[in-house]
Structures are given as C-alpha cells and as structure tokens.
Amino acid sequence: MNKIVIDYLHGYTHIEHEQLKQNKFVFDLPLAAFQNTETNIILLKEYFLKNNFIYISKHTRFASYPKHSHRFLELNYVYSGQSIQTINGEKELIKKGEILLLDKGTSHALELHQKNDILINIIFPSDNVDINWLSNLSNKDSILFNFLAQTLVANSNKNYLIFRCAKNQHIQVILDQILDIYFTKTILANEIISLYIPILFTELISNCSYDFHQEKKKKSTTKL
C-alpha cells in the first residue's frame, strides 16, 4: 500500500484529536448529511453518493459512535485491530481483515475504537450493481445474490453479512488497491473502483466463510 495512504490511515484527523481532547463523541457531519428521527440518525444517500460516486472514509476513533442507519449499502472493512458493533440489537465482533456488509436501513452503533482499531467505510450506489454479474451469482445459488438483488427492489431489508476473510490474501490485496486508488485521487478513480467491486464480491462469496443475519420479524397480532 502507498505510504501516503498508510500515514493517513494511522494518523489522527481533526475530529479524532477533538474526541481525544474532550473524551466524548464529536459529531462530524453537516446537517445536509443526515436526518434525525425520535429513535435514530439516518445518513442520507443524497449527501454521500453525490453523482453516484463511490465514497470511502476512515471511521473516527476514540469515542463511541451512536446508533444510526443508512439509505445506501455500506461495507465496513477492519484494516487493523477490531470493531465491536451493535447491529439491529445484536453485538458483533469484527476482526482485522474481516468485512461487514450492511443493507439499507440496518441500524448499528459502534463502540470506541482505539488507536490501532482502524475501520474503513466503503459506500457505493446499489443501483450501479451490474445485472449480468448478478445473474452469474444467481446461477451459483449465492446468498450474496439474494442480498444484493433484494436491496435493488426494496427500500430496506435490514439484513447484514459478516465475511470472515482475514486469511484470504487476495481480498486484502484488492482492498489495499481500492484504498490506494481512492486516497491518492487516481485519475478515473470512481470508474476503476466500480470495476473492483464485483471482483471483490466474487472473491468474498467464492472463497470466504460468512455469517448472514436477517432482521428478526415481529409477530403481528390481530384483535377480533
């Protein structure tokens, strides 16, 4: 990986300095990026996916991040350390090299990340998922096909996948290349990364174990 990118990932952002200084969570998003409800913070597609461009960021460390959900697919990659999250009410430990894929509407809160707990957020437009590629996955009876296909037609399924892929070096190389391209602002970065996404998912579903979690449906009762 490019040294500039490594230095950025390990370095402290302004918000991280503030969270260390104040010893509490400092909200780092403008009003245009989210919507508040009584029980949740909703991060908006219109802000993060302007012009349908892929958005990648480093999660801020040194404070817990409150419960929130998204109107887009989000991929969390644990670059180093670990990430402890409560997802749809379930506590999950995601270790170095592992990947969490969150469906639209899935809520999660993140516990405090220490210095070496570096988490990368990768957000991409679900409507840019290639249909021909999805069709190939469907022929393999792929759970990833079902996950992605459903999110294309539904507003929210509130499901998530955890890929236990820490030992897969191919995946680590693909992700390193994606981060290099994005953070060094390579020419045509969005177009290049868009080509990497299907390659990444194909490798994940072919050569990684994974945990699939569906939202627990509440039983409805009818009064007579």
Automatic annotation (TrEMBL):
Keywords: DNA-binding. It comes from Melissococcus plutonius (strain ATCC 35311 / DSM 29964 / CIP 104052 / LMG 20360 / NCIMB 702443). GO terms for molecular function: DNA binding. This is Transcriptional regulator of rhamnose utilization, AraC family. Residues 53-131 form the AraC-type arabinose-binding/dimerisation domain. It comes from the Bacteria. GO terms for biological process: regulation of DNA-templated transcription. InterPro entries: AraC-bd, HTH-like, RmlC-like_jellyroll.
